[in-house]
Amino acid sequence: MSERLRIALTKGRLQDKSVAMFERAGLDCAPIHNPGRRLIHSLPNYPLDAVLAKAPDVITYVEHGVCDLGVVGKDTILEHGGSFYEVLDLGFGACRFALAVPEGTDFYQSYKTRTIASKYPEVTKSFFKGKGMDVDIIKIEGSVELAPILGLADGIVDIVETGATLKANGLIPIETVAEVSARLIVNTASMKLYKRQIEDLIEKCAEEVRKSR
Length: 213
Ligand code: PRP
Fold this sequence. Notes:
This protein is an alpha/beta fold.
């Protein structure tokens, strides 16, 4: 008999794309479309229960093994790290981390320590460490584009998808820090315990990734 596996899906931007992928793979996701107040949803035609969670919580649930699998952005993985298998690049949710500065400024000209605002301080830290450059990093929770406008920072490290938000706020991307997309992650113990079932689900997703290329 098949165990019911549990998967954590990232709420928001990745949610619809994750559900669409599973539906293309033949999984009936109707309960997720009409969630009501329920937080956990059993798929009727596949032994899988789904929870919707904030991105960092997806990692926490998978790491602790209360969810066997998760769908989460590489941005969150890079920022939070953690111990799990990253088994598949799902392709959707593609964007990049970029260093952006106010138009007309020369970021690398000054010898003064630069200040960078970001929602992703760890990603920012390792990027500048890789360059051997000392920067001050200020953590911002949202709309980080405001920080240079307000004079708090010389630049930002943030997610860029279409580039519209940077443009609307007079910022230009000057370097790509990392490419980002949604990833399928698996708890390390679950991978051993439910190998056949998890491989079946990975293969279903991989097939959809191949078709969408
Ligand atoms: C993200 C990111 C940028 C914007 C980039 O923010 O932090 O602000 O999207 O998208 P674009 O290149 O297509 O304009 P999000 O919408 O997640 O909101 P937040 O800033 O409140 O986190």
